[in-house]
């Protein structure tokens, strides 16, 4: 009888290194987040479908470019003039059912809902050094005045395309395609070396 297959987190092999970095560097906490249900939405933001969708999600669709808002159970992130990413963090939410639930709403208004839960994973980065670390590999102006809480952007960190979300003044979520997740984690670990104390750097290289 074949052995059952169990899903492994894309960053399972990097969790310990990220935890050690968080322990060793004051002002920096980095960790891999658990998977969430995620659906890509396409709908006319000016039509009745957007209003119906907003009622279901508990919030209006953000229409200002590069912004996001909270839903009842997750986030609603602007991706384009008629495109959003919505997440649901409830542990009992089945991605396929989430897709069907939203699909029933938007399909009545010539919209579309596609389950993209397996497309990306996310890394959480917060602390007083978070913006400085990200700025080492991102071309965006990440000063608080230019990228305040409530902002989001599709950009690059190093060579990885990410969806960068400002959750708070020094709190960020980085959605990244699963195939680039280990690269991004390694990039963060390498870029953060300059924040470690000299003794810690020497120990890590032994």
Automatic annotation (TrEMBL):
SUPFAM superfamilies: Folate-binding domain (SSF103025). It holds the Pfam family SoxG. This is Sarcosine oxidase subunit gamma.
């Amino acid at each position: 009888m074949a052995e059952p297959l169990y899903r492994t987190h894309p960053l399972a092999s990097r969790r310990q290194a990220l935890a050690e970095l968080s322990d060793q560097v004051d002002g920096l906490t980095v960790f891999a987040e658990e998977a969430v249900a995620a659906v890509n939405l396409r709908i006319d933001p000016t039509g009745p479908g957007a209003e119906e969708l907003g009622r279901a999600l508990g919030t209006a669709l953000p229409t200002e470019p590069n912004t996001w808002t909270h839903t009842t159970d997750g986030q609603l992130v602007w991706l384009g003039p008629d495109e959003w990413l919505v997440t649901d963090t409830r542990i009992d939410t089945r991605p396929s059912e989430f897709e069907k639930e939203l699909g029933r709403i938007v399909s009545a208004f010539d919209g579309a809902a596609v389950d993209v839960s397996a497309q990306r994973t996310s890394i959480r980065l917060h602390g007083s050094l978070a913006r400085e670390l990200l700025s080492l590999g991102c071309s965006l102006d990440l000063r608080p005045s230019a990228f305040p809480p409530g902002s989001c952007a599709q950009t690059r960190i190093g060579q990885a395309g990410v969806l960068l979300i400002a959750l708070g003044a020094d709190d960020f979520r980085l959605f990244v395609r699963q195939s680039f997740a280990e690269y991004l984690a390694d990039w963060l670990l390498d870029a953060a070396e300059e924040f470690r104390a000299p003794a810690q750097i020497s120990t890590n290289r032994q």
